[in-house]
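Worked example

This section walks through a single chain of length 149. The input is the sequence exactly as stored; nothing has been trimmed or padded.
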Amino acid sequence: MKPKKFNIRVYGLVIEKNQILLTDEFRFGMRMAKFPGGGLKLGEGAIDCLKREMMEEMSVDITNIQHFYTTDFYQEARFVEPLQQVLNIYYTCDLVQRPACDFTDKPFDFAEKEGAQVFRWVRLQKLKEDDLTLPIDKVVLKKLQQHFS
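Given that input, the structure is written out below as tokens.
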């Protein structure tokens, strides 16, 4: 079966003091560990999408935005119907100020209700592919670890 449309996602790679920012979320009835970001809206540019998502999720502005990776292989979107092809765009960026959102040191430190979300910093070189939920994030992690080693 061929996909019916594209699902374009934009993510921020925030690295400070050899740690990377992750978001733990409870969506579609499951736990997800991923990079912060989300879906591109029609009529929106990729960087504008990233800025909007970071403001929505963490109430924070970002700066020093640099393209890092765009999906270069076919990947089906896992959580939508009808079948869609997902295309992810990743940017490295810095936070302008400390976010006013919930942070934790423990993975999935929330009550499992739809929409729950917390953020955590993880040492980039200690992060493993299996710690991330989304397949493209796993590819990006390898590239990040090679780039920052």
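What to look for: The beta strands are 5-16, 19-27, 30-34, 37-39, 62-70, 84-95, 117-123.
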